[in-house]
């Protein structure tokens, strides 16, 4: 026999009020609008940037690369064919060091380059000296290869805590996350990747995609994503362009 919990309207309302109060106390309450989540930081310390507050139809396409050499070329081809000049790539420094020709192509195309750290591990598991060492090593390698010191960082696996954010901030970095995850890393099918991005994209959005070899369908989905967003009136900006002079949306961190 199946059993079901039954709650009255008053009991549900009272439970929701209690839950919201507890979340406010924990500093992790957010207000949710159409495709937008606004999180209220628990303090004024460094915070990761997920998107920006703007009415302008502008989004940032971002691509993480940590390994492989087969997917980046086709993605760069598509961006060139579609005339997309403003894109941000977050490069893992070991990958960049072993693929200088591909990095050169990204630089020559004028795309923005951010750091994706050195070891592809969760930095929240490191002590502060290790966090600093990982950021510094990636910093030195990327500057040597690209000729420019990066000032944006997206940590491996999107993992960080307050210590990681503070160290990155002290080293002159802005930590960049995303509001829309294409889920291309799951290889769910080209149509699902397209629908995920196009349906969720909103003004000021930072969109996460990948150009590593493990993501086998990104280059197949990208042309339609670009065309669909253009049809909706969106412009493509680098992350730096998007966040420059604009109120950013952040999330609280424990």
From TrEMBL:
Gene Ontology molecular functions: hydrolase activity, acting on carbon-nitrogen (but not peptide) bonds
A GO cellular-component term linked to this record: membrane
Domain NodB homology, residue spans: 57-237
Pfam families: Polysacc_deac_1
InterPro entries from the UniProt entry: Glyco_hydro/deAcase_b/a-brl (IPR011330), NODB_dom (IPR002509), PdaB-like (IPR014132), Polysacc_deacetylase_ArnD (IPR050248)
Any Gene Ontology biological process: carbohydrate metabolic process
Protein name, as recorded: Polysaccharide deacetylase family sporulation protein PdaB
Protein species of origin: Polycladospora coralii
């Amino acid at each position: 026999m199946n059993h079901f919990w039954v709650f009255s309207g008053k009991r549900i309302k009272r439970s929701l009020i209690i839950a919201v109060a507890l979340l406010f106390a924990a500093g992790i309450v957010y207000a949710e609008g159409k495709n937008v989540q606004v999180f209220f930081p628990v303090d004024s310390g460094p915070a990761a940037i997920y998107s920006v507050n703007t009415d302008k139809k502008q989004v940032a396409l971002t691509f993480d690369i940590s390994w492989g050499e087969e997917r980046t070329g086709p993605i760069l081809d598509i961006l060139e064919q579609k005339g997309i000049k403003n894109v941000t790539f977050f490069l893992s420094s070991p990958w960049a060091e072993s693929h200088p020709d591909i990095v050169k192509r990204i630089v020559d195309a004028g795309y923005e380059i951010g750091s994706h750290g050195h070891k592809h591990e969760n930095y929240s598991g490191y002590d502060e000296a290790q966090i600093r060492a990982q950021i510094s090593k990636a910093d030195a390698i990327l500057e040597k290869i690209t000729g420019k010191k990066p000032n944006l960082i997206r940590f491996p696996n999107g993992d960080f805590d307050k210590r990681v954010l503070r160290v990155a901030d002290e080293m002159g970095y802005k930590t960049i996350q995303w509001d829309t995850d294409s889920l291309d890393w799951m290889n769910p099918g080209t149509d699902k990747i397209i629908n995920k991005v196009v349906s969720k994209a909103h003004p000021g959005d930072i969109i996460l995609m990948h150009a590593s070899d493990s993501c086998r369908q990104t280059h197949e989905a990208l042309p339609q994503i670009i065309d669909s967003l253009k049809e909706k009136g969106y412009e493509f900006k680098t992350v730096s362009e998007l966040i420059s002079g604009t109120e950013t949306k952040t999330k609280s961190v424990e």
